[in-house]
Design a protein that fits this description.
Helix content is 26%, strand content 17%. The strands form 7 sheets. A 6-stranded mixed beta sheet has the order 18-17-16-19-20-21, with helices on both faces. Strands 2-5-8-1-9 form a 5-stranded parallel beta sheet, with helices on one face. The protein has a two-stranded antiparallel sheet with strand order 3-4. Helix 7 packs across helix 8 and helix 8 crosses helix 9. The chain is an alpha/beta fold. It is flat. The relative contact order is 0.09. It is built from 16 helices and 21 strands.
């Protein structure tokens, strides 16, 4: 189950509820629980080292990890934030969820099993644009729980719909346990209704998930036939917009005659963006029951809950918010990027695993001692731990971004030309190469000081701050020289102090070259007392000349020219000072919609 807009303080209470549903009375050990986060590694998920004391001394062994389901009892895997899950965790989701058989071979351990674990994940609706579609499709049940709270009350479930009460009823789940439920009959109108609700081009996983939910609701009610009405009930449960259906016991409506067929509306039009949802997590959402166990209930004074509406969720919630996401998902998010850099600087990223080392650099001492402990009984029980060359293990580190896009945005030159189309090739380059981004904003209306430029660093171009920076309204002043100085400082730090060493970098300056704030005024933060004249432009050219002396083999320089009149030669003068090229923008009439 994937829950959208779940408050962080509700992750643990909901995990307790799900663990109680999975557990059976009288079972020893209860429900095992595993939490996956950004720091999850393959060694933590698939294997588990154990030290046991026996008649021959302490022995080391490897046992199946938490995701290999070594115990026959029920298990629950909790993912607090799916958008921040690491590569190892994402691969585990894709490999296990919905799979009939899973196999693991790791460090001499070989195991094959049928995945039976239940997964509970949370994710913000606006973050789905950064999650791989392969991950999202693995969760058949999706619900928007924005506004869900923990409130005390005599009824732990509160005024929930009947279908929710049935789904959270322990006795009802016991009655429909495997082997006890009667066989079901699928109605002829079931499949057409599923395809009608989802529409074309949505994939088979969504259709199968909707049909499975309809089958589960039929079992909970004790019925024996899965009808199209059950499909509508399942669609209301997950918040899927449903089209009107003609009653089955009436004659079909007469043919209205020839005419254009109008399909039912399905969400926003292509190219539009969904407004971000706001979730209020105030102090009222943090109260607990007198017994100390949190209970789930909607906010007091909320509107009546509909047949399939989640308490506190907006009426327009959709189980598939990724369909309306404007930016692209992360490029090849399930694959570790290939690294070109070599040498000591290439092995300074975050640790993601261990392996046999090629040299004595960056050794994993704890894992080396664990490998050596396996063979101490064979090596004669020496008084000290004996480490053989075959026991050595080294760290495997994730590669740091090897490419950098430095983007200088002059907001005061946006009028009259296509800002987005001119910058799109550079953003696409950074997206495909997983480059980090350094954004320098010049002349924004909401800047802290109109005499100074502002900058921030993003790990990728999918950062929402970049989208906001591209749509920033212009201000009055243009501290172009200060913006170029900040960009030059960022590039020097990246080339000189970057942990993995940059392979390639782009400096893109989108400006008309009309800098009207001298560099000294930007550094002091006070307006100049003498007439400015060309001082701001000359300072910008001087800073650009210093940037031109940087590494020409790895740094590319481009000035995006809006072609404004007069002074159309200023962008070319700036490009000559930088030692780069000029890219021309297009007129504003070429922009469609918001252009991004």
């Amino acid at each position: 189950m994937l829950l959208f807009d779940l408050a962080p303080e509700l992750v643990a209470p909901l995990a307790d509820v799900f663990a109680g549903l999975l557990g059976r009375p009288g079972e020893a050990g209860g429900t095992s629980r595993t939490v996956l986060g950004a720091a999850a590694r393959d060694e933590d998920l698939w294997i588990r080292p154990r030290l046991r004391r026996g008649p021959g001394g302490i022995r080391f062994s490897l046992e199946p990890g938490p995701l290999t389901e070594p115990a026959p009892g029920p298990s629950l895997v909790v993912v607090p934030d799916l958008a921040r899950l690491g590569v190892s965790g994402m691969r585990a989701v894709v490999q296990l969820l919905g799979a009939d058989v899973a196999t693991v071979e790791h460090s001499g351990l070989r195991r094959q099993w049928q995945p039976r674990a239940r997964w509970l994940a949370g994710c913000r609706a606006e973050d789905t644009e950064r999650v791989s579609p392969h991950l999202l499709d693995r969760f058949p049940v999706r619900l928007s729980v924005a506004g869900l709270r923990t409130l005390p009350g005599p009824d732990p479930l509160g005024p929930l719909p009947d279908v929710w009460r049935a789904a959270l009823d322990r006795a009802a789940l016991d009655r429909v346990a495997p082997g006890q439920a009667p066989p079901l009959v699928l109605a002829d109108a079931l499949a057409p209704r599923v395809l009608e609700l989802l529409g074309p081009g949505t994939g088979h996983r969504r259709a199968l998930a909707l049909a499975r939910i309809a089958r589960a609701l039929t079992r909970l009610d004790g019925a024996t036939e899965v009808t199209a009405a059950r499909v509508d009930e399942a669609a209301r449960l997950i918040g899927l917009p449903s089209a009107p259906q003609a009653p089955e016991d009436h004659d079909p409506m007469p043919d209205p005659g020839p005419g254009p067929a109008v399909p039912p509306p399905r969400g926003p039009a292509p190219g539009t963006r969904r407004a971000p949802r706001r979730t209020d997590h105030g102090p009222e959402g943090q109260r607990r029951a007198p017994t100390g166990r949190p209970v789930l209930a909607p906010d007091a004074g909320a509107e009546p809950i509909g047949p399939g509406q989640v308490p506190g969720a907006p009426a327009t919630a959709t189980p598939y918010p990724e369909d309306d996401a404007a930016p692209l998902p992360e490029f090849a998010s399930l694959r570790t990027p290939w690294r070109r850099a070599a040498g000591p600087g290439a092995a300074r990223g975050p640790v993601i695993g261990v392996r046999r080392p090629y040299d004595l650099r960056d050794l994993a001492f704890v894992r080396t001692a664990m490998e050596a402990a396996k063979y101490q009984a064979v090596r004669g029980h020496p008084p000290r731990l004996a480490v053989a060359p075959a026991d050595l293990r080294g760290y495997v580190r994730a590669p740091e971004p090897e490419r950098l896009l430095t983007l200088v945005l002059d907001h005061t030159c946006r009028a009259g030309w296509n800002w987005y189309e001119a910058l799109e090739p550079f953003l696409q380059w950074a997206y495909v190469n997983r480059a980090s981004a350094q954004i320098v904003e010049v002349g924004a209306r909401d800047a802290l000081s109109e005499l100074r430029a502002e900058t921030f660093t993003a790990r990728s171009v999918l950062d929402p701050r970049i989208t906001a920076a591209l749509a920033r309204p212009p201000g009055r002043a243009t501290p172009l020289a200060h913006g170029l100085e900040l960009a030059g400082q960022a590039l020097r730090r990246a080339f000189q102090h970057h942990r993995a060493g940059l392979v390639e970098a782009w400096l893109v300056v989108a400006t008309d070259g009309r800098g009207n704030v001298p560099l000294d005024a930007s550094r002091r933060g006070r307006p100049p007392v003498v007439p400015v004249a060309r001082t701001g432009i000359d300072d910008a050219l001087a800073v650009a000349a210093r940037i031109s002396a940087m590494d020409r083999t790895r740094l590319h320089r481009t000035v995006v020219d809006p072609a404004r009149q007069p002074y159309a030669d200023l962008p070319f003068l700036l490009a000559d000072a930088l030692g780069g090229s000029v890219a021309e923008g297009r007129p504003a009439e070429a922009v469609s919609g918001d252009g991004w």
